[in-house]
Design goal:
about 240 residues, mainly alpha, Serine Threonine Protein Phosphatase 5, Tetratricopeptide repeat, 14 helices, about 0% strand
């Protein structure tokens, strides 16, 4: 009798009764690879998983985002479209669909996708934020600001809500409002370089407050923003010989 458990396991494996364990491992590894930016690996692992489990929305979503990050936009759109055929009300897939469409500059379609998410999940801050960005890119600034305001209320700790709203204010020539949003983004995420760079540009090119511009460029450069380093060099002038 001692040999029976081992024989049973081997028999089950040969019969294909345990592939779910292997499939689950592929799914977990593929999602982890996508989140870590190992997109080629994610595409491969999740592709293997989807061959056996084609209706799993999260696998489709992550594989589409990995393809998109690799610049394979058409394939990404095809991937997320397949997922939506099986899961038409999945908000994660709809968000990915909108992001891929926006990245392909098909912004009206992207706005429609994000709007579907808002209907299904009225407290989805990401949907408001992404729709706001697409609205701003289309020049619909009042609508964009409205979406960013909702996103800020729902996700006050997301610095990109304030960065994106700041850029929308900037595009309308509302420099003081833009500076206020970039300042909030810095308070929320003081170790992120982008808001320092954005605010520095306004101080430099529009408000002509060079000391503040140099301070922001210096901090952004220290945090690894290469364009800030270039602007800092321009303001500081050539090194003394």
């Amino acid at each position: 009798m001692k040999g029976w458990p081992r024989i049973l396991v081997v028999t089950l494996c040969l019969a294909g009764a345990l592939p779910a364990w292997a499939g689950q491992a592929l799914l977990i590894q593929g999602i982890e690879a996508q989140k870590a930016g190992r997109n080629e690996q994610a595409v491969q692992l999740l592709g293997q998983y989807l061959q056996k489990y084609p209706q799993i929305a999260e696998a489709r979503r992550c594989r589409a985002l990995a393809l998109f990050a690799l610049g394979r936009k058409v394939e990404a759109l095809e991937e997320v479209t397949r997922g939506l055929k099986d899961n038409p009300r999945d908000c994660g897939l709809l968000l990915a669909y909108g992001k891929v469409l926006a990245g392909m500059e098909r912004r009206p379609e992207a706005i429609a996708a994000f709007s579907q998410v808002v209907v299904l999940e009225p407290k989805n801050a990401e949907a408001f934020k992404e729709r706001g960005e697409s609205q701003a890119q289309e020049g619909c600034f009042p609508e964009a600001i409205g979406d960013f305001n909702r996103a800020a209320a729902l996700a006050p700790k997301d610095p990109w809500v304030y960065n994106k709203r700041g850029m929308a204010w900037f595009c309308q020539g509302e420099f003081d409002k833009a500076v206020a949003d970039f300042t909030t983004a810095i308070k929320v995420a003081p170790d992120a370089p982008h808001a320092y760079f954005f605010r520095g540009n306004i101080y430099n090119f529009h408000l002509h407050q060079m000391d503040k511009a140099m301070a922001d460029y210096r901090q952004a450069c220290r945090l690894g923003h290469p364009l800030a380093c270039r602007e800092l060099e321009k303001l500081a002038g050539p090194p003394e010989k």
